[in-house]
Design goal:
four-stranded antiparallel beta sheet, four-stranded parallel beta sheet, 15 helices, 10 strands, 37% helix, transferase, signal-anchor, P-loop_NTPase
Length: 478
């Protein structure tokens, strides 16, 4: 007697939520000949496919088997189990606004978005000025700061832009788009900003033994720093740099009520706030939010400072001073670090399994692509960061992926400018013929000009027009 059994696996609860249903009359659920898959077998087979699924916690698996043998029957050990049939319950999101914050691992996120958008031929919002790679940061974003979209629509924005709700909501409507950003522990983030941007020089602390520590002990008043911001734009990040990038004005930095309200406002605006200290978990949340695949979030760390540029140890006193100087940023980080882990917990046990698979695949790709050693990459003019060198024996089919994962933000912006220009050319009129050497009306003679030069055949005709002396000799071959 043959019985059709159907199994459904609930990843969120880690249990089989529907056991079986007999498809032939007379077969009861308690019949000893029905097949029962054990929970361990369910988990094992689910793990095999987990890396290939776009969203494990939202994917329903159906296991179907036809067998007349009980589980402990000798022949059942050789019985081939059926393939699963996945039923995806979400579609990839292709409208993403990434608010890029400074020194938070955001360049690596930008590379991921650039690769995904390029692969899927999506349209990027790019800065209007060809010589710039930011949207006139530190000014708040405006639609007029972006290059024309030519009715192609906006899919991804991922270059430095200061948050501004109204114009960003205009380009990326909330109902169809996802808003994401990333934060970092304010102690390490501020140290990185201060030293990478060389704040000590314009602030007058360059000759101090510990420029950062000394500055925090004796910070100049705002009215002394403000004029310096016009010549050194990066100094806009001199206090609470993450909240500044996210759009909060200096006037509110010491107003606890205003800071709390703004954090609550950001909580409503952003669908995902990632945390650098938990980068892999952040990427997996991103993958699930956007309904992408694991291969879409593979990465190499980009724009990382050279080891010699890093402050090896931040002593406790300096650390506490950083916290005091950037209290608003700490409130921001504390709030979203808490919501981050609530989000992770809500994913269920499948999250940790997929995280393990993701890390394994990322490490394997790193070993396959990159040489070991110390290499440099020019992030900006005269500014060098850690870079990579590709192995010579990387297979051709994988080489392009490896190269794109190493590509920095500036290279991608140049590439996308050229790509959108090529799209425009396909719908434009042909180039003007004015400078074309073949552009000559003598190419045909159907409508040749025949001037009236003599009165032959008519008594009333005009007299013959003599050829001007100025034209004598012209047109004759030497």
């Amino acid at each position: 007697m043959r019985v059709m059994l159907e199994f459904r696996y609930d990843f969120a609860q880690q249990r089989v939520c529907q056991w079986c249903r007999a498809t032939e009359p007379g077969i009861r659920e308690s019949d000893p000949q029905r097949v029962i898959y054990t929970r361990n077998l369910q988990l094992k087979r689910a793990d095999i496919r987990l890396a290939e699924e776009p969203k494990a916690d939202q994917t329903e698996y159906q296991f179907v088997n036809i067998s007349s043998q009980p589980e402990n029957h000798p022949s059942s050990k050789n019985q081939k189990l059926p393939k699963h049939h996945k039923k995806q319950t979400c579609s990839p999101i292709n409208h993403v606004l990434f608010l890029k914050t400074h020194k938070t691992g955001s360049s690596t996120i930008t590379n991921i978005l650039n690769r995904y958008g390029d692969k899927n031929n999506l349209t990027f919002v790019l800065p209007r000025q060809k010589q710039l790679f930011t949207f006139l940061w530190p000014a708040r974003f405006r639609v007029s700061y972006s290059a024309p979209l030519y009715n192609f629509g906006a899919n991804i924005l991922c270059n430095h832009a200061r948050f501004n709700k109204r114009p960003m909501n205009y380009l990326f409507p909330k109902e169809s788009s996802r808003y994401i950003t990333i934060l970092r522990d304010p102690v390490t983030q501020y140290e990185s900003v201060f030293n990478f941007m060389h704040f000590a020089k314009p602030l007058g602390f360059k000759d101090e033994e510990d420029p950062l520590g000394t500055f925090l002990k004796f910070p100049p008043p705002f009215q002394e720093i403000k004029p310096l911001m016009k010549t050194t734009l990066a100094l806009n990040l001199v206090r609470n740099p993450m909240l500044f990038d996210l759009g909060l004005d200096f006037r509110y930095f010491q107003n606890v009520t205003a800071v709390e309200r703004y954090i609550n406002f950001l909580d409503k605006e952003f669908d995902l706030v990632m945390i650098l200290e938990h980068f892999d978990e952040s990427l997996l949340l991103l993958k699930r939010l956007l309904c992408w695949e694991l291969k879409d979030i593979l990465y190499f760390k980009l724009n990382e400072r050279q080891d010699k540029q890093k402050q090896k140890v931040i002593n406790k006193e300096v650390s506490e001073d950083i916290k005091s100087w950037n209290k608003a940023d700490f409130m921001l980080y504390k709030h979203f670090n808490r919501t981050f882990w609530k989000n992770v917990k809500a994913q269920g046990p499948s999250f940790q399994k997929e995280l393990k698979i993701f890390r394994h695949r990322n490490e394997a790709l790193t070993r396959a692509c990159l040489q070991k050693g110390n290499f440099l990459d020019e992030a900006y003019t005269g500014v060098y960061v850690k870079g990579y060198s590709l192995k010579k024996n990387v297979p051709k089919r994988k080489r392009k992926l490896c190269e794109n994962m190493m590509k920095n933000e500036i290279s991608y912006v140049k590439y996308f400018r050229e790509k959108i220009n090529n799209r425009v050319k396909k719908i434009e009129e042909p180039e003007e013929y004015l400078d074309d050497p073949k552009n000559d009306w003598e190419m045909a003679s159907d409508l040749e000009h025949d001037p009236i030069l003599s009165g032959v055949g008519s008594a009333d005709a005009a007299p013959v027009v003599p050829k001007p002396d100025s034209l004598e000799g012209k047109g004759k071959k030497p």
